[in-house]
Specification:
This is Histidinol-phosphate aminotransferase. It is an enzyme of class 2 (transferase). It comes from Dysgonomonas gadei ATCC BAA-286. Helix 4 crosses helix 5. This protein is of the alpha/beta class and 342 residues long. Strand 2, helix 5 and strand 3 form a beta-alpha-beta unit. The longest helix is centred in the C-terminal third of the chain and has 22 residues. The N and C termini lie far apart (57 Å). It has a seven-stranded mixed β-sheet with strand order 1-7-6-5-4-2-3, sandwiched between helices. The protein has two domains: 246 residues, Aspartate Aminotransferase, domain 2; 91 residues, Aspartate Aminotransferase, domain 1 (Alpha-Beta Complex), CATH 3.90.1150. It is built from twelve helices and eleven strands. Bound molecules: 4'-deoxy-4'-aminopyridoxal-5'-phosphate. 4'-deoxy-4'-aminopyridoxal-5'-phosphate binds next to loops.
Length: 342
């Protein structure tokens, strides 16, 4: 892979913004360089633009070098940035599976980049050959989401491997739900595939959606490009400090995952007993895609009772489907009771 050939010329040639304090790395007692207000003794200083202390901690938990980590305002930020780094508006294109997470297309549209969808098969499996047929010399990115949202399943590893081996552009594997999955992450394959970017997030298994912290893992050369185009202080100090503390709670997180997986089993067992449930799709995520006889009617009935699920009736291959997130034991029981009492 020739990275320079893939990257937009303006991004490759530009100089990154030099943040306040970039030029000074050591200890100092008087900071008069960043036009901050010295009268406040808390939160008055700009945070570390590259979040090194937080990256060091994530690096230990994930067993990956800090130079291979980009941190953003949710994983939505690197989804947008990767398009801005690699895709020339109105010239280049992106290929992605369909159905999948909606922000890939939104970010492509915002950036005026053609977005080509490749339907999964009826089991929501990926066929690498069909996907690769949609690429051409202007395809810079392929988005794969595994486990996939809204279908819940992991994409077949061998098919992802075929894509990584055959495609000369960048392959993004979005692993937002990987902590709930029965297979391992692609993080250990970054050395093998220099064109791979893995996305993960603190919003799901870590239970920190409100804090807004997402991760992109890639070669140091790709991470440098992310750092070049991001806003200087994209992760605020409250988020940096808070997540540093949360990273010490590894045991609690493992317990949460076990509780949610049990909740998922409970929902799987109970939902299938309901007369209007036609199919429950296998899931490796913290949600379940369910096909019912009347998705719109059921969605409305639940909403009227104060139970909100996601209506996916109008999404490709998901006609008749509701997407249900695993809740607490109590929430799961309320959902099932509300459905039984129809
Ligand atoms: N990827 C996938 C597959 C998602 O489902 C989501 C959120 N629903 C995200 C990325 C974005 O998550 P966040 O910005 O909270 O990290």
């Amino acid at each position: 892979m020739n990275l320079q050939q893939l990257v937009r010329k303006n991004v490759w040639n530009m100089k990154a913004y030099s943040s306040a304090r970039d030029e000074f790395k050591g200890e100092a007692s008087v900071f008069l360089d960043a036009n901050e207000n010295p009268l406040n003794d808390k939160y008055n200083r700009y945070p570390d633009p590259l979040q090194w202390a937080l990256k060091e901690k994530i690096s230990k938990v994930k067993d990956i070098q800090p130079e291979k980590i980009f941190l953003g305002n949710g994983s939505d930020e690197p989804i947008d940035l990767v398009i801005r780094i690699f895709c020339e508006p109105r010239i280049d294109n992106i290929v992605a599976i369909d159905p999948t997470y909606g922000m890939y297309q939104v970010c492509a549209d915002v950036n005026d980049v053609e977005y080509r969808k490749v339907l999964l098969n009826s089991n929501f499996d990926l066929d690498a050959g069909t996907l690769l047929e949609k690429t051409n010399e202007n395809t810079k990115l392929i988005f794969l989401c595994s486990p996939n949202n809204p279908t819940g399943n992991l994409l077949n590893r061998k098919e992802i491997e075929k894509v990584l081996n055959s495609f000369s552009g960048i392959v993004i594997v979005d692993e937002a739900y990987i902590d709930f999955a029965s297979e391992k992450t692609w993080l250990n394959d970054l050395e093998k595939y220099p064109n791979l970017i893995v996305l993960q997030t603190f919003s799901k298994a870590w239970g920190l959606a409100a804090v807004r912290l997402g991760m992109a893992f890639a070669s140091p050369e790709i991470i440098k490009l992310f750092n070049k185009v991001k806003y200087p202080y994209n992760v605020n100090i409250l988020t940096q400090n808070f997540v540093k503390g949360e990273l010490d709670k590894l045991e609690l997180r493992k317990e949460w995952i076990q509780i949610l997986l049990k909740g998922r089993d409970f929902l799987n067992e109970e939902l299938i007993k309901l007369p209007f449930v036609e199919k429950i799709y296998p899931t490796d995520s913290n949600f379940i895609l369910v096909r019912v006889t009347d998705a719109n009617g059921l969605y409305k009935h639940l909403a009227d009772k104060g139970v909100i699920v996601r209506n996916r009736n109008s999404v490709s291959l998901c006609a008749g489907c509701l997407r249900i997130t695993v809740g607490t034991d109590e929430e799961n029981k309320i959902l099932i009771e509300t459905l039984r009492n129809i």
